[in-house]
Amino acid sequence: MTTTNLDTVDSRRRQRLDTVQRSLKSRHARERRFQGMGLFAVITALVLVTILFASILMRGVPAFWQATLYLDVHLDPEVIQVDERPVRQAAESPAQFRERELVWLNQLGMVNWNGLIDEALKAHLPGEIESRQTRDLRALVASGERFALRDRVMENPGLIGQTISVKMLASADVDVWLKGNIDRSLADSRQQLSAQTREWADYLKEQGVIRNSFSTALFLNTDSRSSPASAGLAGAFMGSLFMMLIVIALTVPLGVASAIYLEEFAPRNRLTDLIEININNLAAVPSIVFGLLGAAIFVGYLGLPLSAPLVGGLVLTLMTLPTIIIATRAALRSIPPSIRQAALGIGASRVQTVFHHVLPLALPGILTGSILGVAQALGETAPLLLIGMNAFVANVPSSPMDQATALPVQIYLWQGNELRNFFEARTSAAIIVLLGLMLSLNAVAIWLRKKFETRW
Amino acid sequence: MSFKKSTLSMAIAASLAVGFTTAAQARDTIQIAGSSTVLPFASIVAEEFGASFPQFNTPVVGSGGSSGGLRQFCQGVGENTIDIANASRAIRSGEIESCNANGVNDILEVMFGYDGIVFASRIDRGEFALTPQHVFAAAAAQIPQDGQLVDNPYTRWSEIDSDLPDQEIVLVIPASNHGTREVFEEKVLHAGCDSYAEIEGDACNSLRGDGRIIEIAGDYTETLARLDAQAEAVGVFGLSFYDQNRDRLQVATVNDVTPSLETIGSGEYPVSRPLFFYVKGEHLDVIPGLAEYTEFFLSDAISGYGSPLEDAGLIPMDDEERAQALEKFQARTAVSAE
């Protein structure tokens, strides 16, 4: 009786083991499959990101270096016939002085700066250059360089009569030609430059007059259409900076204050529920909707100027606020209730509890959330298009009320520039600059989190 | 934590103060918007203007298409409305009416040159020698066959004319927010339509809806990107855009005339149009530099032969035409709805 019983128990156990053994293989296989799929997903994502970055870097990095002419320009007093630079007299009102200064500036503007550059070029080129070839000659230099030369003399009129060495950007077409971004074997009629200019460009490159130098213009100049080679990001950078300052000044205090109130003080009722749902919904509203709202309210109703970083900043503030409120609330919620109870237990008021204990502990989370929110706002383009920030602006804005563009909008504008084979690289370079800014913002967020992180 | 509270309120107060004090200041930068065909030209003038006149700021030039620009222009008078609308077509009487309704009465029209519209295809595909009739036959919704209107049967160019390349018909044209579209309809479609007695009026404008006509609302780079994706396609471009991208595009002749500065200037090439900008007369004494900008634009050094605008692909007006345009502006003759 007992042996048979034992037998059956034993056989049941063996049966069970058998079943387990049999299913084990398929269970392991399932795990391997899942892990494999996960690994595949990660690898695919990594490969795609690498392709994206590699293609941007490959196209963009060469644009940080630009064909540059190193010339000695003789500031011939025969050509630069201007009066002495006016100095403000004691008896003069600022308006009177400005008038005299303008007369002088206009004189300076009338000088044939191109002629001076022509002479400097001719000194390096072989053979006699006739006046009918002037057009080919001028195609070598970026047309904005004549203003750069003028500004140099304007700042230091004592230079007149001297020979100064200047770095001048070669024109965009020359840059394209020397970098091989246009097929060199194409027929004359399909080339952007005349045969003569191409020959000269190659000759000057050989002579070392044209060198591929790091392009400071990309960072120091504003956008330019009349002289594409001089186009830079300075204006867009300042526009973005002003917007980010406004976004930070408005969203961080407003967002953190509303999150603290909602999380720590507000009573739980239908009204606060409604508010909470709406904040979550707002965070999911497409950014272009905020742009439409901004155009209607800030520009249309309040009469704020078009294309101004102030309006852009306000629109992006609206967009970023929900993100920051949600991040701050999550950070506050992650503080263990024991901290609050302990503070209340030793007699702290609720305000003291929040500001002395909860908020400092939640700070890393709040900072991370805010920085990520601001980084997102920095990269936003769509709402800015609707408030006129996609305009062509050739001034560096000096206040948030001046017209400006923003970095991502500048990328969009360069992407649409008709001079494709020059601006394709320029666009990628701008993307690299913007990505660099984003990555450093994110790095700051990570560093802050690590620095202030508390474990309990 | 009174410190945090005070910084918070200070930050808010400061940002509000910035908003209110500066909003009261007069705008001293000219604001321009409109046609993306005119944009490169206007931007060049704006830049040269800013560099040549130290007393004025560099004007700000936005895009948005001719219609978009004129709509903004007609929104009213005041600092937060634009001063100049660029247009690649003349203003319509409906637009003048809406302008007038919003208090914009002094609409000063300035014509500054011509632009050609070209058909171009990828350089590695067949060469096209088009006529308006070819384009119409390729684009129309319905064409007459044996005395009856039938849905457009053509799928390859060679079916329309055996001299055309044996290529799929895909035509990339500007959408109706562009002034270029109007010229395309007027100078190409209508001209082609006239060769068919059976179709008249609005029927000339109805395009086939089977995906062979692609409308582009953005600028010409978008059209170029289309040609990269659909190698067989033929795109409609401005002459200046084609000029800058000759290494990728080849241009089609129309009625056996190759578009160029010369053939368009002489009127030999049929598909060209005048370019305009519209100045808001009410702003002339308010926004500094507005009149100077206009006169600078019309000067020989900027928009004449050998000027930076010609280099950028504008077909200049001759001296007499330019003098007339300047005179018209200086007399402040406003356009009115008939």
Please describe what this structure looks like.
The complex is a heterodimer of chains A (456) and B (338). Chain A is mainly α. Chain A has 3 domains: 61 residues; 157 residues, no CATH class; 219 residues, MetI-like (MetI-like fold), CATH 1.10.3720. Chain A has 17 helices and 3 strands. Chain A has a 3-stranded antiparallel sheet with strand order 2-1-3. In chain A, helix 9 packs parallel to helix 12 and helix 10 packs across helix 12. The model of chain A has no long low-confidence stretch (mean pLDDT 90). Chain B has 338 residues and is an alpha/beta fold. Chain B folds into 2 domains: 170 residues, D-Maltodextrin-Binding Protein, domain 2, CATH 3.40.190; 157 residues, D-Maltodextrin-Binding Protein, domain 2. In chain B, the strands form 3 sheets. In chain B, strands 1, 2, 3, 4, 8, 9, 10, 11 and 13 form a 9-stranded mixed sheet that branches. A two-stranded parallel sheet of chain B has the order 5-12. A two-stranded antiparallel ribbon of chain B has the order 6-7. In chain B, helix 5 packs across helix 7. The N terminus of chain B is likely disordered. At the A-B interface, helix 2, helix 9 and helix 14 of A face helix 1, strand 1, helix 2, strand 2 and helix 8 of B. Chain A: Keywords: Cell membrane, Membrane, Transmembrane, Transmembrane helix, Transport. Chain A: This is Phosphate transport system permease protein PstA.
Topology of this protein?
The complex is a heterodimer of chains A (456) and B (338).
Chain A: H1 2-60, E1 65-74, H2 94-110, H3 113-122, H4 134-138, H5 145-155, E2 163-169, H6 172-179, H7 195-207, E3 210-214, H8 217-220, H9 234-265, H10 270-283, H11 287-301, H12 309-333, H13 337-345, H14 350-378, H15 382-386, H16 407-415, H17 420-452
Antiparallel strand pairs in A: 1-2, 1-3
Helix pairs in contact in A: 1-17, 9-12, 9-14, 9-16, 10-12, 11-12, 12-14, 13-14, 14-17, 16-17
Chain B: H1 2-23, E1 31-34, H2 39-52, E2 60-64, H3 65-73, E3 84-87, H4 93-101, E4 107-122, E5 129-130, H5 132-139, E6 142-145, E7 148-151, H6 157-160, E8 171-174, H7 179-193, E9 213-216, H8 220-229, E10 234-238, H9 239-244, E11 249-251, E12 253-254, H10 261-265, E13 272-280, H11 290-297, H12 300-303, H13 308-311, H14 319-330
Parallel strand pairs in B: 1-2, 1-3, 5-12, 8-9, 8-10
Antiparallel strand pairs in B: 3-13, 4-10, 4-11, 4-13, 6-7
